[in-house]
Input
Amino acid sequence: MKIDSVSRDVFQHEAVSVAEEMSVALRRSAFSAIIWDMIDYACGLLDVSGSTIAQAPTIPAQLGIMPTAFRHMIRHIPLEDWHEGDVIICNDPYLGCTHTPDIVLFSPVHFEGKLIAITSTVAHHIDVGGYVPGTESATALEIFAEGLRIPPLKLMSKGVLNETFWKIFARNVRDPKASLGDINAQVAACRTGERRLKELAAKYGADGFKAHVAAVFDYSEAFVRSALRGVAAQQARAEILIEDEATSDDPMRLVVNVTVDAQGLAIDFTGSSAQRPNGLNNPFASTISMTHYAVKVVFTPDLPQNEGCNRPVRIIIPEGTILNPKEPAAVSVRHLTQQAVADVVLKALSQIAPEASTAGCQISFPTFVIGGFDRREKMLAQNGGDAPYFVVTDIIGGGMGASPTQDGISAVDTHGGNCAILSAEVMETTAPVRVIATRIIEGSGGKGRHKGGDAIEREYEMLASGLVISGYTQQTHPETAPWGLEGGEPGGLASVHLVRRNGLEETLGSKFVAVPLEQGERLKLHAAGGAGWGKAGS
Amino acid sequence: MITLAADVGGTFTDLVLVDARTGLILVDKVPTGKRGSAEGIVPGIRRIAERAGCRVSDIGLFVHGFTVATNAFLMRAGARAVLVTTEGFGDVLDIGSQMRPKTYALIQQKPKPVIPRELVFEVRERTDAFGGIVERLMHEEVKRVVAGVTEAKPEAVAISLVFSFLNPAHEAILAEALRAALPGVPVYCAHEVNPQLEEWPRASTTAMAAYVGPVVTRYVDQLEGLLAGMGFHGALQLMRSDGGVATTRATRENPAHMLTSGLAGGVTAAVDLCRRIGVADAITLDVGGTSADLAAITGGVSRTRMSRVIDGQPVRLPTIDVETISNGGGSIAWVDQGGALKVGPLSAGAVPGPACYGQGGMKPTVTDAAVVLGWLAPEDYLGGEVTISPELAHEAVMRDIAEPLGISAEAAAFGIIRVANAMLVQSIRALCVERGIDVRPFSLVAFGGAGPLYGGMIARDLGMREVVVPRHPGVFAAEGLLAADIRHMAQAPFRAPVAKLSPSRLQAVLQNLKDAMTQELEADGVPPARRSFRMLGDFRYIGQFHEILCEIPDKLRLGYDAHEVAAIFHAQHAAQYGHADHKAAVEIVNLRVEATGKLDTPDHGAGAMPASRLAEPVRKRKAVMAQDAAAALVPIYERSALGAGQIVQGPAILVQRDSTTVIFEGQVAEASASGVVRIREFRP
Output
């Protein structure tokens, strides 16, 4: 069937619209702030071979992970057993998922008795059990410390809920109400997608639907190939270091070789460090998703994502490395390494497509969780003498790298996430933690003809004693700093400091776990700045 | 009484004059003229008065919707304003949420705050989360800050201190000192403009008030002067962002409520129209030159939202819930490097305009596509006042679209319409899913110059019940101004669990707000019999951060019942989010009072249609009415000639001075006695 280009373009709007509707449906009925405010979820449509037809543009960290997971699902549950009304669930990083908190759902879409497509949702759940609240821990030794691992199984069978699974799940997570509510929101999104895909199939017919999908893939592939034409270099190599500091002082190395040839873009991570006995390993699917992110922002930022965009891209990730760990490596704090994947690929692409690239960005995003009892006098008075338990978390933005045409932007989260900073007033309302100052530190971005973006420094004062803090950052050493381009200077370093009541300042490492804090003590987080582009004053 | 409404748009200003004594209704369109100046409407007012055979001094009420505040904001051409904030928070506007505007872009820029960092002053003071003073504001510190601010020579001042909504003492001290030092310079305090939790949106809202305040005030002053010069001595009222109107007095006091004045008219008009024709649920589609505005009407009412983000800046003031997308008649069509046809987001705007205007525009626009297809023709376009050239439209579509895609100009033109249409459909779907709406039983109210062009196509794609095309689609937003009532809204922080709050405190806070609003209506000259009040609260589940605005009925305010109040919230939550947790604890975060002063709405619909007459097509012209169809002769009807009850079968085109309505094959249009045209799919 020959599809004219305008019909194809209209169809693509319709397909993206279905994914967006799923996305709105999920967010609308979700329970958790992580979905509401951090948009940490994804919705997409796949064809029956598991190729992405469309994905709503939410969090990059989950870009294009669905096909990887889908191909594992059908090895465990053959497609002929996927019936109308079924929902398949999984969160296993060793079966194509990312880390255990990211729960992946698939549901089949049948039309005129035939399977025509798959809808899929991924959502980050605030907790799936494990040995720390929130499941994520840099010091986890193995995946077994990272909460409930769900193998591919039917959450719903022909519309009927698997009560056994539901009960086991509820018993193993810390906030079952929120988690079950969020899974329901994911199911609602799948159902929205099913309904709308059937409408599309009815409009185009099963064959017409397939032909339009194929035309969209061809178009996207042609777009990427045309973007790859006329690159400045055919080959590039890049490497970066990131801190371990969870179980070793030896930094981890990420290496990438990128080749552009007639077949497209080959991205090879051979040479990257061997996997580590901690939660910093980055599972296969996450390495894939952040590589796709890096390729997309350089070559096709405005193109809707689908299989066609990935066709010209080959990714090689040796097994047993931090970028494709072997079972049972822990992976829960993979976001630090995942940011580094984007960073190292972007560093290589900056040689291939310099006009569309920036110098190194901050990937430090200093993050902490503070928990304990809120023993502020006024809180006790308000609460009838009882000190309420609280947990509060915050993430601090830094600078983006400068480009050949402009300065990097200041005070932002980068790459895989796009998280908001917590309002100082919300923090002090819900926790005995007062934000003393939130400043953009001038000059923390690297100097250059164009300057790197500046970083945020935030200072907190503890208003109660007996608090415990854990957290992490990276880019705290000169060898891990954001890298300059064309003579631009590196971005300023990230740091975490404690100011004791006697005024003494202590530097915490890039990974800190369960540090006790007393009333009056202060915490200072400083993110990394973006790097500069070109020699300053040139 | 003679009432005049004027709604300023980016390209044209629309005018509607209603003479209640004779039932006369006149509409007109004049070029908007210079940005930020009221002068553009003077000739329009003179002309419409002349056509009505009256003097400007005969006009009893003039209602005005304007875009001065929006434009000043978007173009960053507002006042030189300073912000005073707590020490340690001087970067609050620049940091914002720390989210980058585009998730998938490496090279990008953050939208600029309205007050640059060098005009932000930090002051040493601190209030805690319970309203207690942690660090007292010292006299010396006040002096230091006042000296700094004075030296900056501001046109307006915003003060937004941490937790000032819990304890306004320090803001009040600073405001008093600054007002004394800077006579004539308006000073806006956050605890008055937006007394609500979260330092960034509160500072941003207050900064925005200071930024647009002087601009709005100057505009109102100028307008009053111009009107007086024409002999006007009636009442002047201005459209607010929330769909109410304000007197000039209230506007000067709270200019921030005018920020999206220009967006409210269309929705207000649609609500009024739906009421008159008995439609409860509708989507409004207003397609102008550069953008399309979409809104949902459910149960006969539009929705109000308490915050929105405009160009990256949060503004927490009530506005009508309208979504704007850059997809209008002037949107430019282009072919990307992969060979896909795209429409927008760039627009040819008023200058140079679509290629067919012959004013130097070379790029094909949606309007040019409609010209190539024969939907728009020189003899009808804007009553022939703007000349359009089909040759130039053809040329642009051919060069930029048809040739690169290897298709005919007609196929390319139809493609442009289909893509623009697909984008609008996509936006309407997103809008509906977000609000829990199944759009199929809804009516589509299509207006603006270009809305009725493809309203029929959109309703068909969405499976909607019908398209309603108002009598004067091109000036419909101006009609909305005539339907609006005087509105005031005030809020106060009130954080308490619904189950454990003090009813007497709740009553006291609401009473205070109501008293303040009563004074406002009094000052506006609204007699007591015409005043009404709604008590509202921002509710949420404890632990969650998305709030829902719920009405607190009078009987519950007076005889508080925690269970019933929670039930109202649960029901709203279920409607909006698809689920409710009846066991979860609910809290109130803010209280609000909305005050309305009822105005007389001139009835500009009834008796509009000549009864029982059957208009013949005035002519036929060649037009392409379906995908892959050849051009064929299509009957053209003069819209105003249609008789009540007349049915026009598609394909057909209805022309009128301010807009063109396309009826596609398989659709029928019925001209109803109330003056609207309703288009439905023909089902024999």
